[in-house]
Amino acid sequence: MMSASNTEPIKTPFYDFHVAAGAKMVEFAGYWMPIQYQGITAEHLAVRKNIGLFDLTHMGEFEVTGSDALAFLQKTTTNDVAALEVGRIQYSCMTMPDGGIVDDLLVYRLPDRYFLVVNASNMKKDFDWLQSHLFGDAKLTDISPTTALLAIQGPNAEKMMAELTDYDLGSMVYYSCATAKVGGMELLFSRTGYTGEDGLELYIPYDKAEAIWHTVIEAGKKHGLEFIGLGARDSLRLEMKMALYGNDIDETTNPIEAGLSWIVNLDKDFIGKEVVAKAKADKPDRRLVCLELDGRAFPRHGHDILVDGEMAGKVTSGTFSPSLQKPIAMGYVPRSHAKSGSTVEVAIRNKRFPATVVKPPFYKDASHK
After folding, report:
1. Among candidate residues 359, 364, 361, 355, the one with its CA nearest the CA of residue 327
2. Using the 8-state DSSP alphabet, how is residue 361 labeled?
3. Does domain 10-58+145-238 fall into CATH 3.90.1170.50?
4. What is the CATH number of domain 285-363+365-369?
C-alpha cells in the first residue's frame, strides 16, 4: 500500500491544471492540493448559487471483496451494511473497542464488491485498522494510488453532468451510484457530496484522468463552472454541520455525543458496540452542537466555550459563514446547554462573544436531492 507520509507530497493528475488556473497550492494529507483560486468566499458562493469543480484525489478508496465481505463490514462499521441495495451508498463510521471513532466513511454497494471512501488524512490508519480485523473470505484492496476523484457540486450539477453522460440522472437519488459512460469512458460515479448541494462525484482511473478533466471543463464552460479549493469545501461542509475528522470527531469522541446515532445500528454486532450502546442509554455528558455568534467574531478550532463564565468545551470548527453573513461554529457543550436556544459564550482573543445553540444545519436552502 502506498503511503503519502514521509515522502515528497504527491501531485494529483490535475496538479498542472490547478497551477495554470492560479491556485494556491498547499500540502494536505501528503498531497499537493489547491486551497483556493480566486478566493474562498467567492468559491463558496459559486457552489451555493451555481456549480463548482473540486479535485478530491487525495481521498482514500478501498475495495472489499469475497464471500465474507458483508460480514466483515458489518463487524467493522456502525451502520447496517446488510440494508444496502446494489447501487446505494451509506454514511457510516468505524469505532474502536472503547467507542472512539477511527474514521467516518462512505460504503458503496456495487454488484460484485463493496467500495469504501475514507478520509485522506486517515488513509493508512484506516487500511491498517481494517486489515487487522479481516477474517474468512474477505479481501481488502487499496486502490487510492490509481484512483482520481472529481466532484461537481452545486444546484446546476445535474444540468452540467447531463452534458457528459446519457445515463438517466433524474433516476439517481441522493446517496446512490452507477457505472456508465461519462465523457465516453466507463466510470463509477455517485450522487453524493460534502457541500449540501446537489452533486456528482466521479471516480477516475489515473490513466483516464487528463482526458476526463478536459471533457468536464469543456462541458462546464456554458454552465459557468468554477474551480473550487479545499478552503471553500471546509466552509461549505460546516454550514451543513457535516463533521470533519480531526476537528469535530476523532478517537476521543463517540458517535452518540457527536450526533451520529443515526448511523449506528445497535441491532447488529460491531467493534465498540457495547460502549456505544451504553453511551446512548446513559445519554452523553456533552453534545456536538451548532452555534451562531453575535458580533463580528471569527471562531476557530480550539477556542474556549464558556458556560456561566467557566470553560465548558472547545470550538471544533468555526468560520464567518459566507452564505449567512454571520459567525458560526461547532463545538462540544454540556448536555444541559445542548438544546436549541441555549446560550453560551465563545472566547476569542480575550473577548467573549455570546453564542446561541441552533438547530442544524446552519444553511437551510441547500439543493441536494
Report:
1. 355
2. P
3. no
4. 2.40.30.110
